[in-house]
């Protein structure tokens, strides 16, 4: 027999845990980022680019751009210095020691800025002529102005000025375009999520703020007039968020009516808008109305002078009690009533041929002079008096300067 001795098993101890070694630090003048927080820009990523640019996105992630640095250096002195004197480089699996600068602006504005700078000589794509142009231009102008990209600033100013009518003929073309778009709205739903005003016009309050912030006075007379003809209860936000329970009168708040961002309008600009609108109406009442009465009494071919009985209907600036949009838009009112065949004017107002022709001439001339004097009406250009009447206007209307 064998003598056996029981020897208990020795429990194995788990291996000692050692603290994980920290990842190696990037070399001097180099920056590395976690890949899950960095998002490459699809369009503004050039495999042969020699500059990396990062900017924060609205969701907290970092947008990474890889572009060619020379166009930026050529068009911005500040960016040129930032690029030349940066001591930061960025590395990844596909590139090494790529020169890097970080911009504090929103990544969307930076992307638009880079796109326009890199294509500075290309003609502007007017696909954003509608509601998106103001926000698009504002974001780029903020970046371009800060970094003194003057060529891009000049281009954007010219683009935005061109989006606003600068002559009365251009204004009428814009009105016709809007009317054609509005006519196609057959129900109470927007087309592709946009309203009639979004297709052809810029929202005036945002445009005024943009013009004041970046010194674009060329659009201010037209923008203020455009704003002055929009009823105060036609609110831009209310139309787009009708779930709030606010329901303005349908006759003024239709799918083809105009709205404004009244919440953005400063008290001073509201005062300018109201005073300008009143001055236009006063100007017409004090000058156009007496000229019609005076001239028609001279040229009238009716032996009984019955035309004189119908002239108050010709000169009224509020033809229909419920036609508020026309009542506060004298340019549209005069064009609608008098930019049409003489025979129709004669039938509408019961005038002789001579009086109808004279009324048409005076009304269309009044539109021209109102348009030319918009800077004075809205105090964009200060006049010596409240309203300075041009000599040509006095001559046309047969009036003497007081």
Distance between the termini: 145 Å
Quote the beta fraction: 5-15%
Low-confidence stretches: 1-8, 28-36, 243-253, 382-387
> Looking at this structure, what is the CATH superfamily of the largest domain?
Potassium Channel Kv1.1, Chain A
What is the fold-level CATH name, i.e. the topology of the largest domain? Potassium Channel Kv1.1, Chain A
Number of domains: 3
- Anisotropy-based shape: elongated
Strand order of the largest sheet: 1-3-2-5-4
Number of DSSP strand runs = 5
Portion of residues in helices?
Answer: 40-55%
Question: What's the CATH architecture name of the largest domain?
Answer: 2-Layer Sandwich
Architecture overview:
- The chain is α/β, with parallel strands linked by helices.
- It has helices at 69-75, 77-85, 107-118, 133-146, 150-162, 168-183, 196-200, 204-213, 220-228, 236-240, 267-299, 307-315, 324-327, 330-338, 342-349, 353-372, 374-377, 391-397; strands spanning 38-45, 51-56, 62-67, 89-90, 98-102.
- β2 and β3 (62-67) form a beta hairpin.
- The protein is elongated, with a radius of gyration of 33 Å.
- It has a five-stranded mixed β-sheet, covered by helices on one side.
- It contains 18 helices and five strands.
- The model is unreliable at 1-8, 28-36, 243-253 and 382-387 (pLDDT under 50).
- The protein has three domains: 35-160, Potassium Channel Kv1.1, Chain A, CATH 3.30.710; 164-265, no CATH class; 278-397, no CATH class.
């Amino acid at each position: 027999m064998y003598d056996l001795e029981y020897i208990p098993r020795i429990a194995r101890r788990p291996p000692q845990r050692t603290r994980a070694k920290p990842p190696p630090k990037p070399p001097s003048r180099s920056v590395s980022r976690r890949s899950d927080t960095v998002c490459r820009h699809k369009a503004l990523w050039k495999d042969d680019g020699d500059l990396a640019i990062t900017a924060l996105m609205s969701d907290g992630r970092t947008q990474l751009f890889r572009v060619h640095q020379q166009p930026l250096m050529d068009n911005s002195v500040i960016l040129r210095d930032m690029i030349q004197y940066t001591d930061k480089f960025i590395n990844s699996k596909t590139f090494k020691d790529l020169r890097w600068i970080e911009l504090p602006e929103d990544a969307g504005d930076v992307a638009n800025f880079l796109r326009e700078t890199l294509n500075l000589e290309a003609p502007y794509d007017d696909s954003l002529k509608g509601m998106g142009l103001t926000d698009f231009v504002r974001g780029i102008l903020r970046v371009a102005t800060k970094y003194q990209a003057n060529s891009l600033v000049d281009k954007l100013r010219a683009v935005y000025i061109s989006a606003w009518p600068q002559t009365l003929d251009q204004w009428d073309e814009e009105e016709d375009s809007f009317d054609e778009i509005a006519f196609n709205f057959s129900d109470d739903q927007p087309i592709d999520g946009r309203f009639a005003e979004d297709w052809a016009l810029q929202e005036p309050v945002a445009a005024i703020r943009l013009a004041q912030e970046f010194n674009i006075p060329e659009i201010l007379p037209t923008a203020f007039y455009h704003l002055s003809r929009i009823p105060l209860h036609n609110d831009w936000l209310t139309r787009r968020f009708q779930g709030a329970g606010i329901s303005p009168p349908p006759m003024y708040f239709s799918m083809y009516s105009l709205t404004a961002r009244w919440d953005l309008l400063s008290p001073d600009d509201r005062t300018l808008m109201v005073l300008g609108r009143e001055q236009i109406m006063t100007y017409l009442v004090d000058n156009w109305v007496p000229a019609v009465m005076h001239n028609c009494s001279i040229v009238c071919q009716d032996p009984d002078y019955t035309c004189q009985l119908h002239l108050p209907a010709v000169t009224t600036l509020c033809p229909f009690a419920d036609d508020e949009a026309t009542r506060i838009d004298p340019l549209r009112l005069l064009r609608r009533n008098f930019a049409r065949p003489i025979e129709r004017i004669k039938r509408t107002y019961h005038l002789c041929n001579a009086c109808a022709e004279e009324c048409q001439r005076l009304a269309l001339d009044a539109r021209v002079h109102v348009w030319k004097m918009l800077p004075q009406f809205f105090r964009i250009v200060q006049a010596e008096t409240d309203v300075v009447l041009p000599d040509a206007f006095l001559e046309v209307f047969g009036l003497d300067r007081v």
